[in-house]
Amino acid sequence: MELFESFKSNAGSTRRRFIRESSKNLLMANRNQIPTSNSALIAMIADEDTVVGFLLAGVGNVDLRRKTNYLIVDSKTTVKQVEDAFKEFTTREDIAVILISQYVANMIRFLVDSYNKPVPAILEIPSKDHPYDPAHDSILSRVKYLFSAESVASGRR
Amino acid sequence: MEVVDHKTHNLENGQAAEEEEEVDENANVLQFMDSMDAYLTLIHSLSSNLRQGWLELASARHSMGAYRVNTVLLDHTSHPAATSLLVDEGKEPHFTLCKWGSSGNEKLFLGEEQSSRDKSHPEIRRRGATQLSEEKTTSENKASCEIDDPVQKERSKSLSVFGTLVSPKLRDAQLSFETALETLVEIANRRSEMLCAFDKVNKKSGGSKD
C-alpha cells in the first residue's frame, strides 16, 4: 500500500521499484504447487498396470527436476535400477509409503529385509501375475519367530 | 511377629507386581495378534480390489485400444500429486489419506469427513416426506455436490491423460484403485501397530529371559 502511494506521488526509481515488488508478489502467489510440510507422497515400484491404476487415483508426482515418485518395472528393468529406485525412495523425506510388488521385492529381498525404519513404510503388494505370498512378506518374516517352537518353549521355562 | 508381617506384606506386593506385569504382557500379545489379524485380512481385501482394478483396466484397454491406455501417454511435466498422505510421526506412525487435494482445492480426508457428516446429520427414517425434511435433504445434497465438484474435476483431470473421451471401464478402474489406496493406508497403520506391539512383546520376553 505504501509502495502504491509513493508510486502515485513520485516517478522514476520508485515506479520501477513498485513494478519489481508487484511482479515478485505475483510470482510468489502462483507458486502454489509446493506441498505443505505435513503432506507426503506415496511411491511405487511395480508393474505397468499397477502403476497406471494408482496414477489414475492421483498418486503421481513429478517435481521440477522431472523426477517421479514411481518406477515401472518390466522385463527390461534391471535389478540395479530397482535397487537404485528403492534406495532413492527410502532416503527421500517427502515419501511416507512405498508400494512395491512382491515379485519385485523378491529381486532385492536382502535390501527390503534389512530396512527397518518406520517411515517410509514399505508395503509389499500382489501383482497381476504373482499373487501375494505371506511367507515372503518382510514384516511377517520379522515377527514369525514369535510363533516358532523355540520361542514357545523358552516362554514356558 | 512384626518381621513375619513385613515379609508377608513384601510377598503380597511382589505377587501383585508380577500379576500386573503378566496382565500388561497379555495385553501386548493380544494387541499384536489383533493387528496381525487385521493386517492379513486387509491384504486379502487389497488383493480383491486390485484384481478388480486390473480387470477393469484390461477392459478399458480392450475398448479404447492399447495405444490409448499406455504409460507412454503419462504426463512427465512438473505437477504435484493430487492424492497425498498426512503422517503423524509419533511413537507409532499414523497415516491419513488426503484424496484429490491439489492447490487451492478442499482436501478430502478419508474417514474424518464421513464420520463428521454422519454425526451432524444422522439419518432419521420418516413415514411421510415433510417439507422440512425435503429442504434439509436438498441442502445436504447441495453441500455434498459442492464438495464432490472439485473432487470430480480432479478425477477428470487424472483421466484426461488418456484422452477426452474415455471408456466407463477406465472410470471404474479409477474408483477401484482409489478403494485399494484406502485399504493400503489402513494396512500401513496396522503395520505400525503390529511393529509397535511386537517391540513391546520382544522387550518383555527379552527381560524375562535375563
UniProtKB/TrEMBL annotation, chain A:
Belongs to the V-ATPase F subunit family. The keyword Iron does not apply. This is V-type proton ATPase subunit F. It comes from the Eukaryota. Keywords: Hydrogen ion transport, Ion transport, Transport. NCBIfam families: V_ATP_synt_F. The keyword Cell inner membrane does not apply. Pfam families: ATP-synt_F (PF01990).
Automatic annotation (TrEMBL), chain B:
Coiled coil: none annotated. Residues 1-10, 114-126, 133-151 have a biased composition (Basic and acidic residues). Residues 1-22, 111-151 are annotated as: Disordered. Signal peptide: none annotated. It holds the Pfam family Vma22_CCDC115. PANTHER family: COILED-COIL DOMAIN-CONTAINING PROTEIN 115 (PTHR31996). This is Vacuolar ATPase assembly protein VMA22. It comes from Hibiscus sabdariffa.
